[in-house]
Amino acid sequence: MTKDEIIERCRWARDHNESHPSQQWSTGEQLAVALVLRDRSWLDSTNHTTETATDMVCERAGLSAFEFTGWLNDIRAALESEQR
């Protein structure tokens, strides 16, 4: 899971699925998109907390908890700059 892959998934979710992840994606991709787009309702519907989702995304993306914050912020910044 690279930043670019998650950015593309987030764009799709935002543009085609009311900002919710697609069930067709891997669990890691779904969780990453939900975290980036702050989709608490989706996380709740899958019985994930922000913490459990973060742990799984870190594991699948090969990130430490410290690196995750920067990764998440970079993706959000890229998406926000597109909407200006």
Write up what this structure looks like.
- This protein is an all-alpha fold.
- It has one domain.
- Helix content is 71%, strand content 0%.
- The protein has five helices and no strands.
- The longest helix is centred in the last third of the chain and has 18 residues.
- The chain is globular.
- It starts with a helix and ends with a helix.
Write the layout of secondary structure elements.
Elements: H1 3-16, H2 27-36, H3 40-45, H4 50-61, H5 65-82
Radius of gyration: 12 Å
The helix/strand order is HHHHH
How many domain modules?
A: 1
Catalogue the unreliable spans: none
| Main beta sheet strand tally, sense and closure | none
Number of strands: 0
Structural class: mainly alpha
User: If helices are DSSP runs of H or I spanning 4 or more residues, what is the number of helices?
Assistant: 5
Terminal CA distance:
26 Å
Shape: globular
Residues in helix, %: over 70%
Strand content: under 5%
The overall pLDDT, averaged over residues, is 94
Brief write-up:
This protein has 84 residues and is mainly α. The protein is 71% helix and 0% strand. The model has no long low-confidence stretch (mean pLDDT 94).
Features of the shown structure:
84 residues; mainly alpha; 5 helices; 71% helix; globular
